[in-house]
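User: For a benchmark we're assembling, each entry needs the component sequences followed by a predicted structure for the full assembly. Here are entry 17's components. Please fill in the structure.
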Amino acid sequence: MSSSSDLVGNWPGGKLVPNEVLYEYDGPTIFVSTIGLTEYLVYKANETDEYEQFLAVPIRHDELELLKRGRISVRGALIARAEVWLIQTDYSREVHQVKQLGWESLAHWLPRPAVGLLPNGGRVPDSFPQAEALLAFKFEGPALSPGSIRLSTLKNYLNQISYVVREVLLPDALSKGRNNRFFDVQMGAPVLASLMLTIKAPEIDKQGLANFNPTKTLSADRLHQEALMKSKDLWEALEESTDAIEKKAPDFRSTQRHREILQILSGILPNTDNDLDRLEVSYGGQNLNKILTIDKNVGDQIQKAIADVAPSQEVVGTIFEINGESGTFIIKSDLGRQTTCKPSPEILQQMEKNGDLQRGTKLRVQGPFWERTRRDYIYFDTYPDFFPKP
Amino acid sequence: MKTFKQGTPPGCPADNTPDASGTIFRACDTNPPSEEDLTSHAHSTLARKRRNVDPAKCTHWGLSVWITEQDVQHARELHDWIQRKTICKLAVTPSDGKLAQTGASSHHTFWPYEGVDLASRFEIFLSNV
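Assistant: Structure for entry 17:
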């Protein structure tokens, strides 16, 4: 770029003037500048003895606020728009050359992922949907390509997240019967190219609660708060387990609640038995923005750790629901207690082949067992025993 | 009474600017740091450092520094070109000059007193990448 002029677009000329300095060292290095009629985020990407080079992208006021509050990385703020300019100046910031960058050449100029403006901010999300979400799940794997996704794949992940919402975020008072119909979450628009599903906020149907006798005394605000606290529990369960694995703590001991949550999440964690490469989870509650990444190795270790602490138990019940996407089925004991049964992939395949996976079939399974508030959970990798049909 | 480097305007830094203490970190173009690495933009004779100087801005008569290792690591993650510099560190005392947080985020400015030997006292903290 330094060898020939690439003046492009309607550059008004003159100096690059910082209106608001966001970061500096020997002068402003990340700042906001008004170029024409638009506010631009400007990032110093390079310097030599003769010139400085900056990336400039348009930025909205609300996006700038998220950046200043440390809720999104600098990289994330720079890649949010298709319009990115490379501006070359001398050391008095007089602009000499301007060039619009395509995605292929942009990566070379960007700061590292997950680094925000604040030195003590920790890792922060690299996208505005994540920065604005209460919880965000970004799935990466070979089945998740930019621009398109199989309906079955999209449906699988939506169902998995729906399951997590139902099992982890649902306030306890709404867990009986069909009371869960008064609870929902606002989702952000799904983002393809890695699939990103974001939960923006819990929603309580106040009118529905009030019109139904069993729930009319419940406080919608309290239920809302409870759902927010459960989101925090979900985050803490993941953070605690990934921290322990990173520190190579041989056997992290989670609380019962955290173990339950990890078990529920196990369907969306990468592991060697599925085709997910990475899962990035971010949490935006309580004015925080935190992010963590789970790869197959970490996912395997989480699965192993929660299996290791679960006592082995035998459960008998009759199949009344089969969930193909999650590879589980639910049985009900003679006393009405429900258990989600998760067979290993090999056992599941065998059961399907033998025609043993049918509603109304009574069976006995044995394996690591987790007692839960609403519905227990068992994992098994040995073939069940079947009771003769009456 | 101690004075600042010749040419520094009167009243810069302000009288109530805190005395220097603790550790400062500076990004240097050379290893070991040269006098130029420890010369403010306003005092420098280098064209590229002087071109954007505003003599009315007191920070231009001091040195940009960080005061924690975390700030240094963060800066290097934020800007690859800082990784090309050598990071030096120095324990400073009130007899060395004044030090204050100035401007955005973790940015600090250090104004050394006239005659204070800095170059020989700076240690290498992180080599350039």
